[in-house]
Design goal:
The chain is mainly beta and about 400 residues long. The protein folds into two domains: about 140 residues, no CATH class; about 130 residues, Immunoglobulin-like (Sandwich), CATH 2.60.40.1470. Strands 1, 2, 3, 4, 5, 6, 7, 10, 11, 14, 15, 16 and 20 form a 13-stranded mixed beta sheet that branches. The radius of gyration is 22 Å and the shape is globular.
Length: about 400
C-alpha cells in the first residue's frame, strides 16, 4: 500500500467518509471487495486524500457516492490514481484483532490496532432506568443519573506520514506519562498513539509487509502471512501493555449533546508524585467535539469547574481550547484535543461548558459531561514508556 508522503488527509471530508464509505460498503455483498484509491501527485505538492470505491468483482465504481470524492472539479491537474488497499467489511458485531489496518472514519488517518479496551460509556443523551447508573458530582449541571454500557475502544498506532495533515486535531495524538524523576510536573509523551472507538474503524488490508510508518511498528508487530490479519503481536508489545496497563487503561467514556454539538470526554489517571511535602495526583483527559448538524459554528470560550476531594472548587475560564478556536462544519465536523489536570487529593470531578458562536454572531453554551477523576490504581513503579 503506497500513499504519497505529503498526503493531506486533513482536508478529507469526514462527513463524506461516514456517508460515502460506510453506506457504499454496506450495499455490497461479501463477493465484492473494494479498492481504496487515492490521488497521487506527479509534481511536488498534494491537495487531498479522497477515497473512492471500486468493486473488484464487477469493476464498476461503488455507487453514486464515488462522484463525491473524485469529480473532475475535485481532481487537481497532474494527479493520478494509485491503489492504496482493499476495504474489508465493517464489523457490526465482535471486535477487531491485533494487526487490523484501518482508516479513521472521522480524522482520515491510516492506523493499525494494537489491542482493545472495554470501557463503560456514560451517554447522557440516553434516559436510563434507575439501576446501573452513575450519580452526578456535587454542583454539576442537571440531576439525572446516567447508565453505563460496555463499549469497545482500541489502542492504535497512527501512520506518521498522516500526522501533520490531520487538521481537526490540536496536535499529533500521544499518550503522556509522568517522568521518572523528582520534577512532579515533568511529562513525556509517546506520539502517534491514539484511542479509537469501534465505530470509527474502517478496516482494510494491504499486501505490504510494513504498511504503517511508526517507530514502534516493527518493535510491536511482525508480519505473518499465515494469519488474518497478517500482523501479530511481538513479545515486546505484550510486555509493554502489561507493564504500563494502569496508565494506558481506558475505563470510562462520557458523552453529551447540546444543540447538535456532541462532547465526548475520556479521562486517564497518570499517577502520583510528591511535591513540597504533599502528594500531587495527575490525570490526562481527551475531549472530542462533533457537530452533528448542518450549521457552521465556532468554539470561542471554555468554562471549567474542578472539584477536589480536599474540598476545593476551582473555576477556570479562557478563550478557546489549547490555543485554538476551532470551526465545526459539515465538511470538518470534529475537533479533538488532550489536556492535563492535577489535584492535591486522590479524586475529584470536572464539568463545565463550551461557549459556541453561530455565523450570525449569536452564542449558546454546550455542556461538558461531568466526569470523575479517580486514582484507585495500585501503587506501582513509574511507567516505563517504550524502553525495552
Amino acid at each position: 500500500m503506497r500513499v504519497p508522503e505529503r498526503a493531506r488527509l486533513g482536508k478529507m471530508a469526514a462527513s463524506a467518509l461516514r456517508r460515502g464509505l460506510l453506506s457504499t460498503v454496506s450495499k455490497y455483498n461479501k463477493k465484492h471487495t473494494h479498492r481504496i484509491l487515492s490521488v497521487a501527485d506527479t509534481s511536488s505538492g498534494f491537495e487531498a486524500f479522497r477515497p473512492r470505491l471500486q468493486c473488484r468483482a464487477c469493476g464498476l465504481p461503488g455507487g453514486v457516492q464515488q462522484r463525491r470524492f473524485m469529480s473532475s472539479r475535485n481532481r487537481p491537474e497532474g494527479k493520478i490514481l494509485e491503489t492504496v488497499g482493499v476495504f474489508e467489511a465493517v464489523k457490526q458485531h465482535g471486535k477487531y484483532e491485533t494487526g487490523q489496518l484501518f482508516l479513521h472514519s472521522v480524522f482520515g488517518y491510516r492506523g493499525i490496532v494494537l489491542f482493545p479496551w472495554h470501557a463503560r460509556l456514560y451517554d447522557r443523551d440516553i434516559t436510563p432506568p434507575m439501576s446501573d447508573s452513575k450519580p452526578e458530582p456535587p454542583g454539576a449541571h442537571g440531576s439525572k443519573e446516567v447508565k453505563g454500557k460496555t463499549h469497545t475502544y482500541y489502542q492504535v498506532l497512527i501512520d506518521t506520514r498522516d500526522c501533520p495533515h490531520i487538521s481537526q486535531r490540536s496536535q499529533t495524538e500521544a499518550v503522556t506519562f509522568l517522568a521518572n524523576h523528582d520534577d512532579s510536573r515533568a511529562l513525556y509523551a509517546i506520539p502517534g498513539l491514539d484511542y479509537v472507538s469501534h465505530e470509527d474503524i474502517l478496516p482494510y488490508n494491504s499486501t505490504e509487509q510494513v504498511p504503517i510508518q511508526h517507530e514502534l511498528f516493527e518493535r510491536f508487530l511482525m508480519y505473518n502471512p499465515a494469519k488474518s490479519p497478517p500482523f501479530t503481536a511481538r513479545d515486546t508489545l505484550k510486555a509493554w501493555q502489561e507493564k504500563n496497563h494502569p496508565w494506558l487503561e481506558l475505563s470510562d467514556v462520557h458523552r453529551e449533546t447540546t444543540e447538535n454539538i456532541r462532547v465526548t470526554v475520556i479521562p486517564f489517571y497518570m499517577g502520583m508524585r510528591e511535591a513540597q511535602n504533599s502528594h500531587v495526583y495527575w490525570w490526562r483527559y481527551c475531549i472530542r467535539l462533533e457537530n452533528m448538524g448542518n450549521e457552521v459554528v465556532q468554539l470561542r470560550e471554555r468554562h471549567w469547574r474542578i472539584f477536589s476531594l480536599s474540598g476545593t472548587l476551582e473555576t477556570v475560564r479562557g478563550r478557546g481550547v489549547v490555543g485554538r478556536e476551532p470551526v465545526l462544519s459539515k465538511e470538518q465536523p470534529a475537533f479533538q484535543y488532550s489536556s492535563h489536570v492535577s489535584l492535591q487529593a486522590p479524586s475529584g470531578h470536572m464539568w463545565g461548558t463550551f461557549r459556541i458562536e453561530r455565523t450570525d454572531g449569536s452564542h449558546f453554551d454546550v455542556r461538558i459531561p461531568p466526569f470523575s477523576l479517580e486514582s484507585n490504581k495500585d501503587d506501582k513503579a513509574p511507567p516505563a514508556g517504550y524502553t525495552f
